From TrEMBL:
This is EamA domain-containing protein. The chain crosses the membrane at residues 7-27, 69-92, 98-116, 125-141, 153-172, 179-200, 220-240, 247-268, 274-291. Keywords: Membrane, Transmembrane, Transmembrane helix. Residues 11-138, 156-290 form the EamA domain. The lineage of its organism: Bacteria, Pseudomonadati, Bacteroidota, Saprospiria, Saprospirales. SUPFAM superfamilies: Multidrug resistance efflux transporter EmrE. It comes from Neolewinella maritima. Pfam families: EamA. Belongs to the EamA transporter family. It is found in: Membrane. PANTHER family: EAMA DOMAIN-CONTAINING PROTEIN, INNER MEMBRANE TRANSPORTER.
Length: 294
């Protein structure tokens, strides 16, 4: 029987929201030196290094026939978003990207509905409509040099990343009920991170970029390392421990805190804020809440 949330659990939830909500500004700072492709392969490769000790143990807990689908889980849940977010953030602010990422639960439900035929309730359909309406307003009216229409285009990359996360979650829910969540995470991350590590070192020109940029290169590498080890590996492990202690419902409330942290980082880093962002993100979060199961 799971324990009720304690003060430590609430602090853990706050810590997770701070770590995951800071991911987008770390990507932004990494892009000061690296290309979007380099940020992605570095993030994946460094995650693979950090997970290597755990991967040796957890690879033994999956069947050989499960490996191909776990690779698909890794591609949709880790690899593709790792590329999509930096590409989007070449044109969008980190705060806008972070706020749009709150659509993950809504996209997860949409995939369950459209692909896995999970019948929705009327409340959930209304939630989807409200969430998407809020996301459109958020992307169109948020300050940025690209203009409203262009921002909508690049916001589509963030939405695609959210659908990738939703696809991964549904694959796990439908095909890996007998495999511990931690094993799925470690193995899927490692399987897609190892090739990225090889690419980053061999042909990704990461090392010459770091050396050529001097101090700025070292700092950018530090930011991406924090992103990989902190936001991807450590936070993932802490999150699953929180799920075990308190249940998925309590742990999933981190989704509502991440966009707030991303917005605050945007303010600290000098990104513009307009009043329309507040009701727009509120509309997104109401939509996400309504689209979730009871």
């Amino acid at each position: 029987m799971q324990e009720g949330p304690t003060a430590r659990d609430f602090l853990t939830l706050l810590g997770l929201s701070l770590i995951w909500g800071s991911s987008y500004v770390l990507i932004k700072w990494g892009l000061d030196v690296f290309t979007a492709r380099q940020v992605a392969v570095l993030r994946l490769g460094l995650s693979a290094i950090a997970l290597a000790p755990l991967a040796i143990t957890h690879l033994r807990r999956v069947r050989l026939g499960q490996i191909p689908l776990l690779i698909v889980v890794g591609l949709t849940g880790t690899a593709l978003p790792a590329f999509l977010f930096p590409v989007a953030q070449m044109y969008l602010s980190s705060s806008l990207t972070g706020m749009l990422s709150s659509l993950v639960p809504l996209c997860t439900f949409l995939v369950a509905w459209l692909v896995f035929r999970d019948r929705p309730a009327q409340r959930q359909v209304i939630g989807i409509a409200l969430g998407l309406l809020g996301a459109i307003a958020l992307a169109y009216y948020s300050p940025g040099g690209q203009g409203g229409t262009q921002q909508l285009l690049y916001a589509g990359l963030v939405l695609l990343a959210c659908f990738c996360y939703g696809t991964s979650a549904n694959l796990v829910a439908n095909y890996f009920q007998d495999v511990p969540a931690l094993t799925i995470t470690v193995v899927s991350y490692f399987l897609v991170g190892l090739p990225a590590l090889v690419y980053a070192v061999a042909v990704g020109e990461v090392i010459p970029t770091v050396v050529g940029a001097g101090h700025a290169g070292a700092m950018a590498l530090l930011y991406v390392s924090i992103l990989a080890v902190g936001s991807t590996v450590l936070a993932g492990l802490v999150y699953y421990r929180l799920v075990q202690r308190t249940g998925a419902v309590f742990a999933s409330t981190v989704s509502y805190l991440i966009p707030v942290v991303a917005l605050l980082w945007g303010v600290v880093d000098g990104e513009g804020v307009v009043w329309i962002q507040v009701p727009a993100i509120a509309l997104v979060l109401v939509g996400v809440f309504m689209s979730k199961r009871s």
